[in-house]
């Protein structure tokens, strides 16, 4: 009888603990996203401002070296190239890297720095500012970020990221009612970098 009870308790314990053991964790997601030596592709961003009836659309290309840096080349509606690294955000003026004009970028610098953490799988960095909830597995997952610091609570309601072995979509739900959706396509991994990207990052 005691043996049967022990087996029953052991079985229940295993059943209860199994989901936690089998779950796809933020740490595992970080490992998945940091596997490539580099990630290159295109992006289309739609920003729906509360004050406008139609969304503002921007597009371009990006180059990411996980845990190192992000090169963000916006091509439409105008051209601008930004570099995001741990030492900050810089803008290419055609000849050299300079500090970006914050008012010209309309607050995009903060978002692009966040994209570096999101695309590069820096879940430890994200956990300092957000509560993370991850659903799915490494083939198809959704990561929901809920602000937990005073600064992020002032800016965002939540952020949702979808992907597989790479990030495919990011949605930002902002406090003032604005929404931003970022779609990534034509993504390639471990492709040789051009000389500009190699030097910049």
UniProtKB/TrEMBL annotation:
Keyword Lipoprotein: yes
Originating gene: lolA_1
Gene3D superfamilies recorded: Lipoprotein localisation LolA/LolB/LppX (2.50.20.10)
Signal peptide bounds: 1-22
Protein known as: Outer-membrane lipoprotein carrier protein
Source organism, top-level taxon: Bacteria
Pfam family, one: LolA_3
InterPro entries (UniProt xref): LolA/LolB/LppX, OM_lipoprot_carrier_LolA-like
Keywords: Lipoprotein, Signal
